[in-house]
Structure formats: structure tokens, C-alpha cells
Design a protein that fits this description.
The complex is a heterodimer of chains A (276) and B (430). Chain A is an alpha/beta fold and 276 residues long. Chain A has a single domain, classed as Aldolase class I (TIM Barrel). Chain A is built from 12 helices and 9 strands. Chain A has a 9-stranded parallel beta sheet. In chain A, strand 7, helix 9 and strand 8 form a beta-alpha-beta unit. In chain B, helix 2 crosses helix 4 and helix 10 packs across helix 11. The chains are: A alpha/beta (276), B alpha/beta (430). Chain A: Pfam families: Trp_syntA (PF00290).
């Protein structure tokens, strides 16, 4: 199997995976934010397709999803947005299973995966779809050459972890702490243990949940991660911009700076440039 | 008809196409641990768990609840109508069957904290009662809107020393309360058990909640044989999430399993018609643009999808966003329904129907006036559905709960909607 775009994004040192919610607060603003995040050093864009019942999200992303839905974001508008992205980085679609299930024929994920592949999506992260229920989505992803990224949690047992490592493609999403998404000050003590348990795999390992600063990014890559995933810290920045009525370009500048800080922090965690 | 007619069958948590375990990975180990505990303690009665449960639901809960003949209702409908009196269970609703069972199970599992969601507050109060009785710390999540309109239940939970956390996100009702409870569980998963309030959620919840609630239909079968000399021709129950529904139907379907049941009370009884009555609200249908359904009729009008851990029938938009539902009865106001019910509707074993707000209000007043029983507004939907019953054998209506909690709503809505059957209250207005 040839290496996917997603896996290749981790080849040149620690990767920065940056998450924003599509359509928060408008599709045009999201497009501008994505350009800024890539400018700041983002290697993978994780673009949230908003669902009304986001059980894995903390308050920050719940509110962003509400803003995006209130502004009219839909799966079709999402795919249009993805198709318009110029930046040369892979885009991972992060959403909940019901939206994939309902698209097109309303009978499973195949129709959405096909449309997503067409629009330029490289893979999926679906937080309410554990590996146990992932058969139909895996099959659809395989048919279209897309990756399906599984989340390894701090509670994940050894046998579940090995099952996921067998099936995950692109990278493995290491959930850095129990609970929901949301920016935190500290790196969870669970993170080094989680990474140690994944040492035996060649699949790139990216840590998410709670990462918000360059210093945290440094700690995480120093613990052996191949990348960091940041979401709520960006979304907080977007929310502040909405609250203060700042123009999207101003918000985009802040996002670029934050991405640059995170990327530099992640790079600092690795003693020398690493070439796999 | 059912896929699980054998009591000893270990299900994989699917009912035809429905069910499953659609939850974040962080919860999956807890879900697997719970599945194992369900199979050992509930299905196999390990350590005498089910004996313990049966003893406590009698001595603390007040089981068995009676099966009461309703003479005036019988005359009105031209068939013998009986009422299964879950309104007389401790707490005033069937909810305690499940809450006591799950809190006790959590104790057997060595968990030391309980969380639960509640809509109208009935499941929250039942869980708080069970936790007080079994000395378990308890936190309840309840939508802000529901906190405001169900104050007495908030006080009841507080009296039992439960913490009540208002949920402000979204419309502040049951759906958001479930989301927030799942988030708490995902954060405190090692020591916490989530007592889900209906036959919804990931496996094993739909099966386990059904089994605890099926003590209703187990009793009902024994009482029918004794009092009617035969099984009823039909059982009618309201359906929101569906816990009283599966409780009233479970033993007849044959899928429920609770060790220690009297012989023959859990064998499939395909000749008994089962009618699940949903909230038709003010009208049927989904308003796609507004993301709103003026009803809660997911079983009779919904489409297949995935919500709160299971594949089931849902009220959703064309693109798959879950809509806000509506019913005059807060306990039926939910956009999803238990996956086993969805399956049993597809196989034809259960007949789904719905009753609108006004018909439920009228039935509320009829039962109060004619039979001396004030039913919950949820139950009132099942009573109203007697009008749709065209069989001639005896019928049992499951009185899922008592209506004291609904008096404010009923008086207000009866005046606003001009319900003929309502008593004149005007003279008491200031």
C-alpha cells in the first residue's frame, strides 16, 4: 500500500494538526482561517462538520458547532468549502456518524465518503464510531483510498489498542486525557504512558485533547509523539473574534501566530530534525 | 418475531439493524465492563444479585403493583379495561424499577459514584431515591428549561441529597442532559456508573433496562391469569424513550430475562397485541428549516439513524441533524426511541401509533373523573389510544406513572386548548 497524504504529513518532523469547525462563523471566514493556519505551519487540517449532538466535545467546540449550524452549515456546504481550499495540506473530516449515515441515500456512510473523496478529503475521524462499529465506514474509505483514524483513549485496554492499530490508517489519534475536548494549561500525566504503550507501532502518533500552547506541544513531542492536535485553543480565538466583532482577517492573523507558536513548540520537543 | 427469544441468549446488542455501541472510545472499556456485569449479575444471577433486586423492589418499592379493573372506561370502550398500576410504585412512576436495579448493579460492580440524566425529573428522582437508599453519591444532569418547569422534582432530588446540575447548552431539555451526562461519564469513567433512564443508549443499556422494567409485564401476566383467567388480548403503553413500553411488553415479546420469574411468565405470547403510543404533539412531521418537530413520534414517523449510542428511529432533518421534539408530556419529549422497539415495529410485533396533546389531555381528565386515578400525562396518551383499539378482548393499559407532577401543566394547557373534559377552575382564579 502506498503511503497516504495523511501519513506523509508526519514525515518531516513533528506535525501540527489544526482543527476548526467549518462555517464558524461563516464558510468564507473558515476558508481564510485555514489559509492562515497553514501559513503558520499546520501540516494537517482537521475540519469539523458540525453535528447537533457533539457528545465528545467540551463547551468551546459545542458553542462553535452551534454558531456554525445557526449560520446554516450543511454537509453539502462543507464539501463545497473543502473543494475550495487551496492550501496544499491534507484535510481530515471530523464529524459524528449520523451525518455520514444520512448523506445521499440515507443508508450508510458510502455516499458521503464518495462525495468527500471527490471534494478532496483525505480521511476521517469519527468520535462516536468505535472500532467495533466501524466496518461500513472502513470499507467505504478503503474503496476510495481514504484514511480512517481511530482514537486511542487513556482508558483503552491493550486488546482494543491492538485492534485499532491494526485498522487505523494515516495516523493514530492519541486522546491525551479522559473527558471531552477543551483547552487546558497542562499536559495530562496520562500522555507519556499512552505514548509508551504505542511505542511498538510505526504509525504516526498525534496527541490531542487539551493542547493549547507551544510549551505543551514541546512536552508532548518530547514524550515521543509524532504530532500534536490542537482544536479548542483555535476555536477560543475564533469565539473571541466573534464576541468582539473582529474582522476575519484579524482573527486569521491571531490563528497564524498561534499555529506558529505550536509548531515551533512541537519542533523544540525533538532534539534534531527527524527523517523517517 | 424477536431475535432474542431464548432467555439464555447472549445478545451482541443488536436488534435487527438497530442497537449497537456508538460511543466514544474513552467509554468503550466501561461499556464492555458493564456488558460483562450485566451478563453475570442480571442474566446469571451471580452472587444472588437478582434475588437481592427482587427483594428490594418489593420491600422498598412496594411491588407488586395491582392490576385494577376500570369499570367506567370498560363501559365507554365496550371491552374490559384493566390498569397496571405503576403509578403506585414508590416515587409515583415505573422509573424506580430501572433506577434501583442499576444503582444496585453499580454497587455490585464496586462503582462509587452515580450520574444520571433526567428530562421531566422522574428518572432523576427515582435515581436519587435509590442512591439515598443504597448510600451512593449521585449527580443528576437536567436541562435548564426542565429545571425551571419541574421545580418540585428538583427539590425532591435535593432532598435525597443528589446534586442537580442544570445544563444550559441548546434547548436545555432531555437530549442535552443526556449529552452532558455522557460527557461526565467520559471524564469520570473509572469510578462512575451512568444510570441511563430508558431503553436507549449503547448495549447493554437497552437490554438491561428492559429486563429490570420487565418485572411489570411478568407481574401483569401472572395477575391476568389470576384475575381474568387468561392473557389480555392487548397491552397498551405510552412510548417516549420506551422504558415503560418495554417493561409492559417485554415478557410478552419474550426477549426480557430476569431470573426468578414465575414459570411461563417470560415465554413469547404472540397472540397478545402490543400497542405503543407516542406523543403526536400539536401535529406530526418535522420542520427541516427550524430543526423542530412539533411532536415526539420517532417510532411511528421517524427515520433510521444513530443517536446517543444506538442505531434507531429518530426525528431528524434530511441531513441528519437531530431536531428538538415536543409534547405536552415532558416524559415523552425525546427525538429518539429504544432500538428494540424500532426493531419490533419493523417486524410487526408492536403496533406504533400516536395521540396528540389535546386527546391526551382529555384522557387525563376522563381517567381522573371516571376512575379516581390521576394519570401522568405520558400515561394519558396510552389511555387516549383506547379509542383506536378495535379488538373485543380485555385490554391492559400500563399506567406508567401518576399525574400529580403534571397538574400545573394540565390546568394551563386545558384552558389554553379548550379541553371539554376539563373541570371548571375559573372560580378559583384570583
Amino acid at each position: 500500500m502506498t503511503r497516504s497524504d495523511l501519513a506523509a504529513a508526519f514525515d518531516d518532523g513533528p506535525a501540527l494538526v489544526s482543527y476548526v469547525v467549518a462555517g464558524d462563523p461563516t464558510p468564507a471566514a473558515t476558508a481564510e482561517y485555514i489559509d492562515a493556519l497553514v501559513d503558520g505551519g499546520t501540516d494537517v487540517i482537521e475540519l469539523g462538520l458540525p453535528f447537533s449532538e457533539p457528545v465528545a466535545e467540551g463547551t468551546t467546540i459545542q458553542n462553535a458547532i452551534k454558531r456554525a449550524l445557526d449560520a446554516g452549515m450543511t454537509p453539502d456546504a462543507y464539501l463545497d468549502l473543502v473543494a475550495r481550499i487551496d492550501a496544499d495540506v491534507p484535510v481530515v473530516c471530523m464529524t459524528y456518524y449520523n451525518l455520514l449515515f444520512q448523506y445521499g441515500d440515507r443508508a450508510g456512510p458510502a455516499a458521503f465518503v464518495s462525495a468527500a473523496a471527490e471534494a478532496g478529503v483525505s480521511g476521517f475521524v469519527v468520535p462516536d464510531l468505535p472500532v467495533d462499529e466501524s466496518g461500513p465506514l472502513r470499507e467505504a474509505c478503503r474503496a476510495h483510498g481514504l484514511d480512517l483514524v481511530f482514537v486511542v483513549a487513556p482508558t483503552t485496554t491493550a486488546d482494543r489498542r491492538e485492534r485499532m492499530l491494526d485498522l487505523t490508517t494515516g495516523f493514530v489519534y492519541v486522546q491525551g486525557r479522559v473527558g471531552t475536548t477543551g483547552a487546558r494549561e497542562e499536559v495530562s500525566a496520562a500522555t507519556p504512558d499512552a505514548l509508551a504503550a504505542l511505542q511498538h507501532t510505526d504509525i504516526p502518533k498525534a496527541v490531542g485533547f487539551g493542547v493549547s500552547s507551544g510549551e505543551q506541544a514541546r512536552e508532548i513531542t518530547a514524550s515521543g509523539a509524532d504530532g500534536v492536535i490542537v482544536g479548542s485553543a483555535y476555536v477560543d480565538t475564533v469565539a473571541d473574534g466573534v464576541a468582539d466583532d473582529d474582522p476575519p482577517s484579524v482573527v486569521a492573523d491571531r490563528l497564524r501566530d498561534l499555529a506558529a507558536e505550536l509548531k515551533a513548540g512541537a519542533a523544540r520537543g525533538v532534539p534534531e530534525p527527524e527523517h523517517k | 418475531m424477536s431475535t432474542n427469544t431464548d432467555d439464555t441468549t447472549r445478545t451482541d446488542g443488536t436488534f435487527g439493524d438497530y442497537g449497537g455501541q456508538y460511543v466514544p472510545e474513552v467509554l468503550m472499556p466501561a461499556v464492555e465492563e458493564l456488558t460483562d456485569a450485566y451478563e453475570r449479575y442480571v442474566l446469571d444471577n451471580e452472587d444472588g444479585f437478582v434475588d437481592d433486586f427482587r427483594q428490594r423492589i418489593r420491600s422498598f418499592g412496594g411491588r407488586p403493583t395491582p392490576l385494577t379493573h376500570a369499570p367506567t372506561l370498560s363501559q365507554r370502550h365496550g371491552v374490559d379495561v384493566y390498569l397496571k398500576r405503576e403509578d403506585l410504585l414508590h416515587g409515583g412512576a415505573h422509573k424506580l424499577n430501572n433506577a434501583l436495579g442499576q444503582v444496585l448493579l453499580a454497587k455490585y460492580m464496586g462503582k462509587d459514584r452515580i450520574v444520571a440524566e433526567t428530562g421531566a425529573g422522574q428518572h432523576g428522582t427515582a435515581t436519587a431515591m435509590a442512591c439515598a437508599a443504597l448510600e451512593m453519591p449521585c449527580e443528576i444532569y437536567m436541562g435548564r428549561t426542565d429545571v425551571n418547569r419541574q421545580r418540585p422534582n428538583v427539590f425532591r432530588m435535593r432532598l435525597h441529597d443528589a446534586d442537580v446540575n442544570p445544563v444550559t447548552v441548546g434547548s436545555g431539555t432531555l437530549k442535552e442532559a443526556i449529552n452532558e451526562t455522557m460527557r461526565d461519564w467520559a471524564t469520570n469513567v473509572a469510578d462512575t456508573h451512568y444510570v441511563i433512564g430508558s431503553v436507549v443508549g449503547p448495549h447493554p443499556f437497552p437490554s438491561m433496562v428492559r429486563d429490570f422494567q420487565a418485572i411489570i409485564s411478568e407481574e401483569l401476566r401472572a395477575q391476568s391469569r389470576e384475575q381474568l383467567g387468561e392473557l389480555p388480548a392487548a397491552v397498551i403503553a405510552c412510548a417516549g424513550g420506551g422504558s415503560n413500553t418495554m417493561g409492559a411488553f417485554g415478557a410478552f415479546v419474550g426477549s426480557a430475562s430476569l431470573p426468578g420469574a414465575p414459570a411461563g411468565t417470560h415465554e413469547p405470547a404472540p397472540d397478545v397485541d402490543l400497542l405503543a403510543v407516542e406523543a403526536g404533539g400539536s401535529r406530526l412531521g418535522v420542520d427541516d428549516d427550524a430543526g423542530y418537530a412539533p411532536n415526539s413520534a420517532s417510532l411511528s414517523t421517524g427515520t433510521e439513524g444513530v443517536l446517543h449510542g444506538a442505531r434507531t428511529k429518530l426525528l431528524q432533518t434530511e441531513t441528519g441533524q437531530i431536531v428538538e421534539s415536543h409534547s405536552v408530556s415532558a416524559g415523552l419529549d425525546y427525538a429518539g426511541v429504544g432500538p428494540e422497539l424500532a426493531h419490533l415495529v419493523d417486524t410487526g410485533r408492536i403496533t406504533p401509533t400516536n395521540v396528540d396533546d389535546d386527546a391526551a389531555l382529555a384522557a387525563f381528565h376522563r381517567l381522573s373523573r371516571d376512575e379516581g386515578v390521576i394519570p401522568a400525562l405520558e400515561t394519558s396518551h396510552a389511555v387516549a389510544a383506547l379509542d383506536q383499539y378495535d379488538g373485543d378482548g380485555p385490554v391492559v393499559v400500563n399506567v406508567s406513572g401518576r399525574g400529580d407532577k403534571d397538574l400545573d401543566t394540565v390546568i394551563e394547557a386545558s384552558a389554553a386548548n379548550d379541553i371539554d373534559a376539563a373541570p371548571d377552575m375559573e372560580v378559583f382564579e384570583q
